[in-house]
Design brief:
The complex is a heterodimer of chains A (611) and B (226). Chain A has two domains: 50-273, Cytochrome c oxidase-like, subunit I domain (Cytochrome C Oxidase, Chain A); 296-546, Cytochrome c oxidase-like, subunit I domain (Cytochrome C Oxidase, Chain A). Helix content of chain A is 59%, strand content 1%. Chain A has 16 helices and two strands. In chain A, a hairpin with a 2-residue loop joins strand 1 and strand 2. By secondary structure, chain B is mostly helical. Helices cover 75% and strands 0% of the residues of chain B. Chain B contains eight helices and no strands. Chain B has helices spanning 2-12, 19-25, 37-63, 78-102, 105-135, 144-174, 186-212, 215-225. The chains are: A mainly alpha (611), B mainly alpha (226).
Amino acid sequence: MSEDYNDNKTIQAQSSEAISGGGSVSPDLDYVRPAEIPDQDLYHGHSFLTKWVFCQDAKVIGVQYFLLATFTGIIGLILSWLMRLQLGFPGAAGFMTAEHYYQFVTMHGMIMVVYFLTALFLGGFGNFLIPLMVGARDMVFPYLNMVSFWSFFVAVAVLLASFFVPGGPTGAGWTLYPPQTILEGTPGSGWGILLMCISLILFVAGFTMGGLNYLITVLQARTRGMTLMRMPLTVWGIFTATVLAMLAFPALLVGALMMTLDKVLQTSFFMPTILKAGEVLEYGGGSPILFQHLFWFFGHPEVYIVALPAFGIVSDLISVHARKNIFGYRMMVWAIVGIGALSFFVWAHHMYVSGMNPWFGFFFATTTLIIAVPTAMKVYNWILTLWRGNIRMNVVMLWCLGFIITFVNGGITGIFLGNVSVDVPLSDTYFVIAHFHMVMGIAPLMVIMGAVYHWFPLVSGRFLDEKLGKWHFWLTFLGAYSIYFPMHYLGFIGVPRRYFEMYDSPYMTSAVGMNEFISTAAFIVGAAQFILIYNIIKTLKTGKPAGHNPWKANSLEWLTPKVPPEHGNWGERLPVVHRWPYDFSVPGAKEDFIPQTTPPSEVAHTEAEKT
Amino acid sequence: MISILKKLFGTLLEKPWESEQASIDNTHEGKTFNISVQKSAVIIIFGIATCLFSLIFTSYLYTLPPDQDTRYLLRPNLLWINTLILFFVTFFFAKITNDLEKKVTIKIKKNLIIVGGLTYLFLFGQIIFWFQLMKSGKFISTNSYFSSFYIFTALHGLHLLGGLFFWGKVASKVLKLEQNKILEEEKNISALSMYWTYLLIIWLAFFLMIFIFNDAVIDWCKSLIS
């Protein structure tokens, strides 16, 4: 490295990304381009309200998103407990009718996918990490960012209000398929579905404001020396997921808007001619299948809106805690971008049982299987990063390993379901429940937990308790397997999903023991999550101080002058980046990490480029 | 577009860990594109809005039954005048851009007010047209042709209202500025100009679609097939 840097020949800038960042390289070893962009003018809150409630600091907004998403997630968790209580021990929850069950299913699904996972990954981690990781003082439009969070707040309030309106929340299933969603007979077909649609519209509007911030901050507000290919994979994951969200959420918006009009103004976007008790309704000419296309055009990219940030975050966690550079960084970036692009060409694999031209089925099965290629590349690269690494077997690493296992498990069953001929018989069984909970529920949750244990010292300045963390991990990991692994079997024997109870079907006897076991495991796993809440409260009071850069990481978020970082992040001067964030265990270096801000002259005798 | 794709793929081929690439990367200023954040925001909004309007177009085509009077909206009516107004808005924005280069402050201020006024006039015209439609018995629930028309015009109008919100903020600043300081708002004004031009294009695309997918064309297509 030193020899190359000392080479006095002028190198023409070739960074293809650097449209404006071209120029020639100075022979000075530590040369950096002088600051040309004026520093960002920030609004500093002075009162409690402007500092902590209507705050414009992305880090506070990130924590706000995190707390609110967690709150809605806990409601989703309680709903799942109630569902499992009914399935494992029918009648044990005396108040629960079939209508209640369907309402709980619907709200659990929508809450977990949109209001918990999406909000937490993009709103929570995105806001907290993007400005810090790219070396910015804040998001480019802080005011808009604040409005984004409060739109999310109102969206959640409207959604939860549906529990208290006449008829209760919608019980049409989280996919909200018309026409039954808005017709009498479906639970919550009045106020419930209306509030759900309004809430979704608010969510999308709010997210668009936030997403605009994430994209422009990443593209236009990075610090000097931070090229796109020097960004941590966490930022790549969140960035690409935001692009997906910006293109996919309009489909949800259009679907929700048209459904609202169908309900309120008797339009017929999704409503065909319908006979009800021998009487022809006013609707006619619409297409329920159109809604399915719109919903899944949003719904499948949504899987990757959740998964891509998880991929990025877990890559960084594995690299830091295995003390090794990420294996195949470029491939990891390509895979993130490739998966993002492909995710728009697979949506109809959710609609095989709705009926379609066989050639469409063939097309969507093919694209679905193709998307497994970049995904598998990522799994290989995580494993190869661990290979011969100096692995710290701490709680963060446990969550990462748990992620890889559950993700591979869920991914493989996805390959089953991607094929039309296999999907059709399995589609309405517990096999599907097992698949998507494993790949989209448990696997991202493992990453969230790993990320919480990893970045909590940055947020609070203290370490979370390791022993409690290990209890939390093992109960969650083994418990989640106890829930979802048997569900694959239930699916294979044909136990149908969406059933309130099995009545006198053969499944009443053959699956009853397994359902009891699954439900018991679900209660334990749910309760285990409160260990984290206890751990956080305990740590905030008496936790071990973490100090600066406790994990000895390289990325910028750990290099702020103060921990936790204050508003503006960087004190007087913005950091200057000299390298990628994965220089771990570099031969010749004094320590096993070289932070991104370390100039070449300080590590002149290392072989960073060969690691 | 091709150059952006080339740059994107070029970027993805970089090897940030190699010393040669590192020395190139060290000179990077941190911005990806040499445009202001305001323009970047408008371009991203174009992407989202294009997706949104394309989905409405697609939904319209998906549910368009053959027996609707799709020529109705094309008869001489207020829509044509509204379209003309939107053209004028874009024309005045072009003048503003021209004046920005020459730093003719008074004209910029005057034209900026005209732009806002004409946009309000357009929105007012659209609402009047809605009332005219409803008076003639063409409601949003009449059929999918009119449902799509109402929903499209509503969303287009909402986008314009959003633009007017930012126009208000920019105009109130510009009107107070002295001549030598007008360039401080140049980025905002050119972002607004881009936004209005985009909304004109979207409106024309919608208008064109009404032309193309009218009964006559559908009949002609059917005759070709038969």
